[in-house]
Each structure stands twice: as structure tokens, then as C-alpha cells.
Design brief:
The protein is mainly α and 100 residues long. The protein has a domain at 8-75: Orthogonal Bundle (434 Repressor (Amino-terminal Domain)), CATH 1.10.260. Helix content is 76%, strand content 0%. The protein has five helices and no strands. The protein has helices spanning 8-23, 28-35, 39-47, 54-64, 68-99. Helix 2 (28-35) crosses helix 3. The longest helix is centred in the last third of the chain and has 32 residues, at 68-99.
Amino acid sequence: MPQTLQTNPDLVLLELLRVARKQSGITQNELAERTGMRQADISKTERGVRRLDIVELHGWLSAMGVSFVAFATVLDERLTALALVRAHAAQRAQWRKKER
């Protein structure tokens, strides 16, 4: 798997983070204050320029009042669905290749 932020699984995570923050009614500035980070780092993370480690993710979610376990469950469901779509597409591509 490529080591880039611009892969579909990473985009799923970033979208979930943005949605969680917006649903919590928290601005990037407020999240920065609550986590001790700079607003620029919040923005870079949400845009996929900067990665979060697992401890930072826990801090972000806590600052937004979001359950880490609930967030991880939704992320897992979305990533599992994405993997199934990718596997199906790969299988279809193999079938097409054999038909030629």
C-alpha cells in the first residue's frame, strides 16, 4: 500500500475528523486551544498535509467530546467497506483480463 496521505483510507479518516469537529460545533481555533496545538496544525491535519498519531487522535476526539471507541468503530466500518469495494474491483479487472 502506498505511503501517502492521498489514498482513499486516509481520505476517509480525514473526512470523519472534519465531520466530527463540525458536528461538535467546534472551530479549528477552538480545537487548537483545547488540544494545545496551533490552528495551522489543525488545518494541515484536516487537509492531509500532517498526520496524527494515535495519541493525538485520542486527544482530538476527547477535546471534541467524541468517543474514541465510537469513532474507531465508524472508521473501521468505512475502511472495511472500502476494502471490499477495492477487492471487488480488482476481481472484476482480473476477470476482464482473462476474457481478452
